[in-house]
């Protein structure tokens, strides 16, 4: 019983590598959306508040697909869920071709919505999938490890977008041709990944959330028929995820605007700094994964949330470089929040794990709603708009702080 649990087992290694690559893929698409946000402002001549509908299209898909993806996964399994997500992802990418030809912001939003339905499906499947590839006691570490590569994708997305879409003076910097070409490439890559994954053999899995250790089986027997929404730690996790992704969506949506208006950078150079902020997030995830070997995940979550409250206050002052550095550090402290909230919410959910995963993914809709509020303030002062995420980090801090009382068995 005292044996230290392994990170994973050899038989799961290939599948873990492949599923981890999926985290990288949707990291690219997520941050590319924030690059498009600024490009659409420039080319389609829309306001900051209207451009925030890009985030609503992306994150709204998570709300729409959360339950259907969970039901599909439960009926057909993890592999089929991944393949369905990749198909939606590729279709959405290819729809950028007619959207660019039509120069229609509405058409782009439809394409983004379908693409994001694929991302939402992948995310609904991938988190419990990764969690099932080993002992539940190391599920936090596996999910944070996989999410670290989501951070790698987050670096690649704005770097690619800044160079191919926002770069001043290049041939298609003032039109949508570069956007079309970029998403044609993405569509073919995603279709290729789907084809390769169709040949991957997934070992028979015993989900550690469903069949836990013997002590849980005895202690949790009275909870076998407990209603999903009577699990307080799950309910608070879903709420915390709503506010967490709201903070993420708002912070990322107006990062390039902050660089342009407060720091007087070009769109391209602000985009490169956005990419560097994703390096900070990746470092934070690797550091967080290591720290969780010594600090309980819920405690580390509270510490990082408190740090981001301080960072937001500094950013909102518009002090120049000190504020801009604080903006970069928001991503470092943000790093562990999504996977940690997700993992804590799924702890000891037993047979309800997949259903709980769907509801937590639906909380991602916060990333579509919160930028709308920030955009209304950013229309007048982009620095002042960064006061709003403080509300989100207070909720996250409260979740981490109260977690031992919410789920005494996992504390």
From TrEMBL:
<feature type="transmembrane region" description="Helical">
    <location>
        <begin position="358"/>
        <end position="380"/>
    </location>
</feature>
<feature type="transmembrane region" description="Helical">
    <location>
        <begin position="106"/>
        <end position="131"/>
    </location>
</feature>
<keyword id="KW-0812">Transmembrane</keyword>
<dbReference type="InterPro" id="IPR036259">
    <property type="entry name" value="MFS_trans_sf"/>
</dbReference>
<dbReference type="InterPro" id="IPR005275">
    <property type="entry name" value="Lfuc_symporter_FucP"/>
</dbReference>
<feature type="transmembrane region" description="Helical">
    <location>
        <begin position="234"/>
        <end position="258"/>
    </location>
</feature>
<dbReference type="InterPro" id="IPR011701">
    <property type="entry name" value="MFS"/>
</dbReference>
<protein>
    <submittedName>
        <fullName>L-fucose:H+ symporter permease</fullName>
    </submittedName>
</protein>
<feature type="transmembrane region" description="Helical">
    <location>
        <begin position="325"/>
        <end position="346"/>
    </location>
</feature>
<feature type="transmembrane region" description="Helical">
    <location>
        <begin position="300"/>
        <end position="319"/>
    </location>
</feature>
<feature type="transmembrane region" description="Helical">
    <location>
        <begin position="12"/>
        <end position="32"/>
    </location>
</feature>
<feature type="transmembrane region" description="Helical">
    <location>
        <begin position="181"/>
        <end position="200"/>
    </location>
</feature>
<keyword id="KW-0472">Membrane</keyword>
<dbReference type="Pfam" id="PF07690">
    <property type="entry name" value="MFS_1"/>
</dbReference>
<dbReference type="InterPro" id="IPR050375">
    <property type="entry name" value="MFS_TsgA-like"/>
</dbReference>
<feature type="transmembrane region" description="Helical">
    <location>
        <begin position="80"/>
        <end position="100"/>
    </location>
</feature>
<keyword id="KW-1003">Cell membrane</keyword>
<keyword id="KW-1133">Transmembrane helix</keyword>
<feature type="transmembrane region" description="Helical">
    <location>
        <begin position="52"/>
        <end position="73"/>
    </location>
</feature>
<feature type="transmembrane region" description="Helical">
    <location>
        <begin position="386"/>
        <end position="406"/>
    </location>
</feature>
<feature type="transmembrane region" description="Helical">
    <location>
        <begin position="270"/>
        <end position="288"/>
    </location>
</feature>
<feature type="transmembrane region" description="Helical">
    <location>
        <begin position="143"/>
        <end position="166"/>
    </location>
</feature>
